[in-house]
Specification:
Blueprint lengths: L1 H22 L3 E6 L9 H16 L3 E6 L6 H12 L4 E4 L5 H10 L4 E5 L8 E6 L1 H15 L4 E6 L4 H17 L4 E6 L6 H13 L4 E4 L5 H9 L2 E4 L12 E7 L2 H13 L6 E4 L6 E3 L8 H15 L10 E2 L5 E3 L7 H5 L15
Helix pairs in contact: 2-9, 3-4, 5-6, 5-10, 7-8
Length: 357
């Protein structure tokens, strides 16, 4: 009997130790990137956040990533392989990963998925994005003040709501300080193609543009701006190294705190499917240092606008506003509802050119 009790005690201790070891197993976190970690833009910033996760949790997490994953079947294959390898949570960091995320999530209900900038959710799929348009309203004001030709260029990737919001907000910001400003938009139909981005920047400069904005992922446009002596704004990360004289500031995507919070929820067993859309107030949208080439009064105005947006005193989409064709959209003092902004599919009045389908 004594021997039996000893075996039972030893077995119980063994189970306890096994349970303790299991509890201390690291949470496995996978990241799927549309670009490369060296793109110095969108993907670079997500990967910096991954490194913040490692610094925060140490050996309590194990991170991995696959870069340069095309949107479509390749993304579905990569995420399926991640799920089969035992990853607990997958961050899919491009809009075009939306349907692959939904498909793979249905096949692996015990894995949780976080999809950046999308809108489809499931019990194990959450969505997150930043109110980039708030930052673009601010840089629009700076552009409107800094342009000597009154012509601002915008290099756009794809005609999805996130990009259209940015164009409209930047234009409205510029128009609020410079009624004579014009916007010229070039669509490149890619997130990451240095050659196309450079060609677009050159084409805009040839049209008299002296300030360039972009919603693409590499610093190619910044490099061209530096070469040609015009101003530009970085996208997603600080691109000043590629245009020390050209960059006025850059909108910074601050993903680290969000990733840490969501991984902590997995550790705590409190993760649930939600939709997150944070902006300047929540520090998800930030700015690189303002260039000393910006006059003091313009810099002061930009800082005041940032503070007012954070406080809810300014909303970029506040009436009176019309759509491009003159159709009334927002009446005096009316603020656009989030649902309308999230699905934005039209230019505001004053922007020239057709919006692609």
């Amino acid at each position: 009997m004594k021997f039996t009790k000893t075996l039972a005690a030893a077995a119980a201790m063994g189970l306890a130790l096994a349970g303790s070891a299991q509890a201390e197993d690291p949470v496995k976190v996978g990241f799927v990137y549309v670009g490369t970690v060296g793109d110095n833009g969108w993907t670079y910033q997500h990967d910096q956040a991954r490194l913040e996760v490692e610094a925060e949790f140490g050996d309590r997490v194990e991170t991995s990533y696959v870069e340069a994953v095309p949107e479509g079947a390749d993304a579905e294959r990569v995420m399926s392989q991640m799920a089969r390898s035992g990853v607990d949570i997958i961050f899919a960091t491009s809009f075009g990963y939306m349907d692959p995320v939904i498909n793979v999530a249905a096949e692996f209900p015990d894995v949780v998925f976080e999809h950046a900038t999308g809108y489809k959710r499931a019990d194990n799929v959450t969505t997150y994005s930043a109110r980039f348009y708030e930052g673009r309203y601010v840089i629009g004001q700076i552009a409107g003040e800094m342009s000597q030709t009154n012509k601002v260029g915008y290099i756009a990737s794809f005609p999805i709501p996130e990009v259209i919001q940015g164009i409209n907000a930047a234009y409205l910001g510029a128009k609020s300080v410079n009624p004579d400003v014009e916007f010229k938009v070039v669509w490149v139909y890619t997130w990451l193609d240095p050659g196309k981005e450079a060609d677009a920047a050159n084409a805009l400069i040839e049209q008299g543009v002296d300030v360039i904005m972009q919603h693409t992922d590499t610093p190619s446009a910044m490099t061209i701006a530096e070469e040609k002596g015009v101003f530009a704004f970085g996208q997603a990360s600080d691109m000043a190294a590629f245009g020390p004289n050209a960059q006025l500031t850059s909108i910074l995507d601050n993903w680290g705190p969000y990733y840490i919070e969501r991984i902590q929820a997995v550790m705590d067993g409190t993760w649930k499917s939600v939709d997150t859309w944070d902006g300047i107030a929540e520090n998800m949208v930030r700015f690189a240092p303002l260039s000393d080439k910006i006059p003091a009064d313009v810099a002061s105005q930009a800082q005041a606008t940032i503070a007012a947006i954070a406080a809810g005193e300014i909303h970029p989409f506040t009436g009176p506003l019309n759509k491009q064709d003159g159709t009334p959209w927002l009446s005096e003092g009316e603020v656009a509802e989030d649902s309308v902004v999230a699905g934005m599919s039209f230019y505001v009045e004053g922007i020239e050119g057709d919006l692609p389908n």
